[in-house]
Amino acid sequence: MARRTKGDLFPLEKYWAPDHTVIAQKINRFKAGGKLRVLDLFSGCGGLSLGFHAAGYEITAAVEFDADAARSHGANFHPGDPRHAEARDITRTPPKKLTDALGLGRPQAAFDVIIGGPPCQAFARVGRSKLREVADHPEAYRHDPRARLYIEYIEYVKACAPLAVVVENVPDMLNFGGHNIAHEICEVLSGLGYVCGYTLLNAAMYGVPQTRERAFLIAVHRDICDRITFPEPTRQIDLPSGYDGTRAFALKLLAGSDTHGPDSFWKQTPEAAADLPPAVTAQEALGDLPAIYALAELESGRLKRGARRFDDAVPYMFPNDPSDYVLQMRHWPGFPAPHDLSDHVIRYLPRDYKLFARLSPGDQYPEAYRMAVAMFDAELSRRRRQGEVIEEGSKAWEELRASIVPPYDHTKFPNKWRKMEADKPARTLMAHLGKDGYSHIHYDSAQARTISVREAARLQSFPDGFVFRGTMNPAFRQIGNAVPPLLSKAIAAELMAHIGKCLAAPAGKVAAGE
Fold this sequence. Notes:
Elements: H1 6-9, H2 20-31, E1 37-41, H3 47-54, E2 58-63, H4 67-77, H5 95-102, H6 107-110, E3 113-116, H7 128-135, H8 149-160, E4 164-169, H9 181-191, E5 194-202, E6 213-221, H10 243-250, H11 257-260, H12 282-286, H13 294-300, E7 314-315, H14 324-330, E8 331-332, E9 335-336, E10 340-341, H15 353-358, H16 365-385, H17 395-402, H18 453-459, H19 472-481, H20 485-504
Parallel strand pairs: 1-2, 1-3, 3-4
Antiparallel strand pairs: 4-6, 5-6, 7-10, 8-9
């Protein structure tokens, strides 16, 4: 297949560099003490926004298509202003329409930094086979309209002339259908007057109790600096098996000099020093939250089938020696913890609670399936000893088996289930949490359940004072789709410090590394 050029995706003649006067005005505003104003595109509930807010930026506006996520973003960053809680389709919301709706004036004057993560589903390898089946086309995933939403992101950059740009996405963004999308975006932004760089960062190395690997692209206008920096890790961890393979696939295209480009856009992933403290564990993140004993909840009738709403508040636990992470989540500036938790709710999975209790930490679906079959065999033998006639293949046999053994093929998708380990960070939270949550079974066998909404938020580093709109399933989806706020904060703080250092230094000093 012929290699497409950057012009196939972005006809550069349609773009122009922002007026240097506009950039100078924004620089002078920042130098005078003004906060950097952020526009968050594809914002979700606000993981990126929260990190930038915590680092001292002003969250001026957001664009988000999902109604529940948009309401969450508005509730947390612009409470009481319904304009900011409105869901917007970026393909139908050009920059001028957005700034008019929010009373922000001209797009070029409204924002200093644009951040966001165009929907990752089209980039992630996991979704490609399904897209092929639906479209009956071997490369259907390349035609998924979500995969072209990053072009809308570029349109906003062109119209708003930000000082800096941050893009987040899955590692497969670096190897999407034989194209390095991050590199192609850098080429376009470079043509618009920006210095660009991208790398892979793991959230566990920045204080998040989760081994989430993501690609980050940063661009800063050339009137400010001529190099890009990424934050140094604050924690160290030996990543689980599988991460090396994922990273190798993502970086496969970097072997060619044409992919590196004249500006060497790719930046080596920062290494964690050996003397750094270890990554935050699941128990350090969740140990203070009230226990929920699933079987007891089921037997008492308190846990029932149906939509799980956030209208039942439960009191906190107050351990004698809370972890530093717990204190951080309860006392996040601007988002203090409520008196009681109202989103500490779990899924109704009556077939599986006894199975969860018998799994060992680290067990995945193959182990769960074998355990379930053993549980079925034991129950079948017990009933037969009591005189029940249950022939193999009969309706009674099938019904009993279905009440104990999950129906999923144990030879496929071994990561579909996983019991967390208390002494390690959790694995990556996915948007699929909105459907079943089996990927994060609580490490406490006595509780025998999947994690709650608030526990998922904790593992993603959302503070307890951050609210999620909608019911349980939409909240899980919002959390799984989000950028971990602590990772976002590290990027935001590094970006602000770098911009300040560049503006304060004599020409060439920072670029030379002095």
